[in-house]
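Sorry to interrupt, but I need a hand with the structure work. It will help me judge whether the discrete encoding reads sensibly. Write everything out right here, beneath this request:
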Amino acid sequence: MKTTHKLILIGLAALPLSALVVASTGAPKKTQRGQTQVERGKYLVALGGCNDCHTPFKMGPKGPEPDMARFLSGHPDDAKLPPPPKLAPGPWVAVTTGSTAWSGPWGISYSANLTPDENTGIGIWTEDIFIRTIRTGKHYGVGRDILPPMPWQGFAALTDDDLKALFAYLKSLPPIRNRVPEPVLPTEVGKLSQNNPKGLYE
């Protein structure tokens, strides 16, 4: 993972749909920088550090590394997690599994599946839904709040063209079926420790 500054730019909880936009000539639509939308979107995903939270990590020869076979597929649905540790009062306010699950005053949040799978990812999203989600910080643009650590406020400052490019790139990815758990409310986190000391999904 990168620095705290990088963490501010992680994730894109709940993203878009709509494939590569083509001009009337049939050629990929170009941005003002001469890139295709997909190329621009790929650049923005790398710059934004989306991989840091939305791609599960695996152990590699030099330690934890992104599992590129599950690129941007979110928190693994087969993960066996114990309840999050309780933090003592003080400056530390959140804990993480290292990338895809986070616990803090907001409860427990899991990074979303950003691949275009129609049942578990963003496959049924439209470009408009994606843009409204990022602009409002609301799931589908009208639902529950997008939770930390997703820095939607920073992404909301992007232009419409850049958000459309992000969407086009995400829609170009191979779909990965992975149903991410729903967030856990703060009032329910304590019950996990009492009722399920061995793990959330066992």
